[in-house]
Amino acid sequence: MKILLINPNTTASMTQAIAQAARAVAAPGTEIVAAQPSFGPASIECHYDEAIAAAGVAEQVRLGAAAADAVVISCFGDPGLDAAREATAAPVLGIAEAAFHAASFLATRFSVVTTLTRTCVIAERLVQRYGFEAQCAGVHGTDIPVLDLEGAGEALVGQIEEAARAAIARDRSGAIVLGCAGMAPLCAELSGRLGVPVIDGVAAAVKFAEALAALGLRTSRRGDYASPPPKPYAGCVSHLGW
After folding, report:
1. Per the UniProt record, which residue ranges are transmembrane (predicted)?
2. 35 within 8 A of 15, measured Cβ to Cβ
């Protein structure tokens, strides 16, 4: 089985760290193929970043999904998720959607701990879109820049732990969802410290992707997830047209 793991930002070291986290949970025989866009932001921390990154996700799906059994979009904003599902019949999972589902299996209420406070509203909108308002008790920012998570030392891990403990107490939550793919390498450590399930969306999405692919399930080709209608594309994306 081959899973195309797309990091929607353009930081190669983060792509490799996310891939390592994915390979750590992948089943024997599952190949994780990591990719990132050829253009776009170094990190995704606002609506503008997401808009550009979504186009980069579409680029990578268009170029690589034909050889994949499933696709995982490894950014907590799930940028370009619907476009990716149009572009391939392989199952496509976003890590936020996967993490919310996983948390709902483990606790009646969960909280999200993410990076910049300004991105909390983006996560809250995803909670609403995916129908988890009753289970998600709160979304909390740490104001840690995404790229600072690379090689995170004790101070940053402690900062995330403190925010998670406060969220558990304030929200009366039974689980924590990590709201950034860059937090994936910290999942096991934080779970041990907090004593509650800590869900990394990268790992959850990989396992769900394996399950869907093993079941032989494909993205529906009817309605809005039908393949895009053929037409020429102009300029720098001319090679991505149908």
Report:
1. none
2. yes
Of 29, 7, 10, the closest CA to residue 95 belongs to 7
* Structural tokens at position 178: 């990590």
Q: Which amino acid would we find at residue 51?
A: A
Quick one: fold of 96-201? Rossmann fold (3.40.50)
Pairing label, strands 198-200, 175-178: parallel
Contact 113, 11 (CB under 8 A): no
pLDDT digits (tens, 9 = 90+) for 41-100: 999 999 999 999 999 999 999 998 889 999 999 999 999 999 999 999 999 999 999 999
Q: Where in the chain is the domain with CATH 3.40.50.12500?
A: 2-94+204-240, 96-201
Residue 146 token pair? 């995404």
pTM over 0.85: yes
**Cα dihedral across residues 174, 201, 237, 220: positive or negative:** negative
2-94+204-240: CATH, from 3.40.50.12500, 1.10.260.40, 3.30.210.10, 3.30.310.50: 3.40.50.12500
Contact (CB, 8 A) for 155 and 163:
no
Percent of the chain with pLDDT over 90: 94
**Model pLDDT for residues 162-189, shown as the tens digit of each residue:** 999 999 999 999 999 999 999 999 999 9
| Tokens read off for 44 | 């995704």
Q: Are the CB atoms for 44 and 79 separated by under 8 Å? A: yes
